[in-house]
Amino acid sequence: MTQPAAAPQAATDGVRPSNEKVKDLIIDARDVVKTYRTDDVVVEALKGVSFSVERGEMVAIMGPSGCGKTTLLNCLSGLDNIDGGVIYINQEDINKLSDDKRTEFRAQQMGFVFQFYNLLPVLNSIENVELPLLVSGTKQGAARKKAEAALDLVGLRDWSKHKPAQLSGGQRQRVTIARALVNQPAIVWGDEPTGDLDTTNADAIMDLIGQLNREHQQTFVIVTHAPDVAQRCHRIIHMKDGEIVREEAGQGVRAQAVRA
């Protein structure tokens, strides 16, 4: 799926033209260019990258430090602007959205799992999980119920009143995953989600991610340095010097998506 695709037809509303015959792509990036400029230094972080992911896939992105994998994730999620190409997320051209609309789209469509958790230390588990809902305007009662359901999903309901300092690394990452899932996102992005965990906890987190993918057809895109983590995914994308150089099948078993 990484080969360059034909240029999309013009669309005035930022939505991918409906007459294109494509698979059920939740991510469709075409010829993406990202350049960083500092004084006289120009760094081509992404050099015309084309990349697509079907709904319900688990895809790993691997490569040496500085190859552009985190930059690609940031561009796909709309955290960074691009200098060329096009990125459709759930058929929406995210770079045609205003900053406010893109932030709203990200809050509704995406969840994030980071290496170092990014949990607020003064809040307990359920408060950390419900926080993005409250920020986006969900009422307290509804947010609490959704947060409880998300903690149930990751097996941490009994730890809902514990603050991050009272949790193990694996439990903290489960809270992070619950927070990522609480708004029922189309995509969950993982940036080294097991990077701060020992082998046992890393395996447990990948077991959980795989279960969520199989049982709920949750799409995951995971940046990782760990080959064993990448092999748990359906596909592995290898990057070098701002380009995708190859891809291979992982060992993850993909569930049959449920169609409406």
What's the SSE blueprint?
Elements: E1 25-38, E2 41-54, E3 58-62, H1 69-76, E4 84-89, E5 92-93, H2 99-109, E6 110-114, H3 125-135, H4 140-153, H5 169-181, E7 187-191, H6 199-216, E8 219-223, H7 227-231, E9 235-240, E10 243-249
Parallel strand pairs: 3-8, 3-9, 6-7, 7-8
Antiparallel strand pairs: 1-2, 1-4, 4-5, 9-10
Helix pairs in contact: 3-4, 3-5, 4-5, 5-6
Structural commentary:
With 260 residues, this protein is of the alpha/beta class. The chain has a domain at 55-70 and 100-249: 3-Layer(aba) Sandwich (Rossmann fold), CATH 3.40.50. The chain is built from seven helices and ten strands. The chain has helices at residues 69-76, 99-109, 125-135, 140-153, 169-181, 199-216, 227-231; strands at 25-38, 41-54, 58-62, 84-89, 92-93, 110-114, 187-191, 219-223, 235-240, 243-249. The strands form two sheets. The protein has a six-stranded mixed β-sheet. The protein has a four-stranded antiparallel β-sheet with strand order 2-1-4-5, with helices on one face. Helix 3 (125-135) packs across helix 4.
Keywords:
single chain; 260 residues; alpha/beta; Rossmann fold; four-stranded antiparallel β-sheet; 10 strands; 31% helix; globular; disordered N terminus
